[in-house]
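Sample intake sheet
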Amino acid sequence: MTKFRKIKRFILDILYPNRCPLCERIIRYDELVCDDCKKAIKSTDDFCKLCGLKKCDCNNKKYYDLALSVGVYEGRLRSALLRLKTLRNDELSEFFAQSISEKLGDTKLDAVVFVPMTKQRKRKSGFNQSYHLAKALSNELNLPLIKNALVKVKDYKHHELTGVQRVLEVKGAYIKGNAEIRNKKVALVDDIVTTGSTMNECARLLKEMGAKSVTALFVAKTADDFV
């Protein structure tokens, strides 16, 4: 959190006490989430760091080189992400960005991109939560945010499909944008991952565009890989 943002939050806290966006408990002006909610997030540290899945699937080719997430998609984390899909929350995005940054450690990156929405879906929902997460992460890491790396041209009901169906359905859903990412180490951001098929397809396109590496970063991984 920048010094300016801390001062702004301190002043606002006098009139509007700062509350944890996950549980609504009053917290310090310079906190983003309360300690109880941080502890309530189930870690994914024991998930595979290369494919990002609970049950390693590295035998099947992955176009991304590393996959990291904040926690398991359940409980308070699940509620927070469902809220983020319908209501922009800068505190949540900033907290997730900080958490992802901690997971990255010494991993070197050159730019941040995100999994896009179709124009129709964005008009309906009002905003793309993955974009706002990527924007917060680019600020946290002091890296450029590339907005036009990928374009989504087809929607699909991902949650209703099996793992195999997801792999097939995602083909052709995304196309290359007009961004220059050749030889860049790119962070690819999304909010929730189940099988990793969307991340893998987007990473494939980024590699075809010349990306040197793709690090898949997401807030939550479902407890079931849904194969």
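Comment: The two ends are 39 Å apart (CA to CA). The helical segments are 3-15, 35-40, 75-86, 90-104, 119-125, 129-141, 163-170, 197-208.
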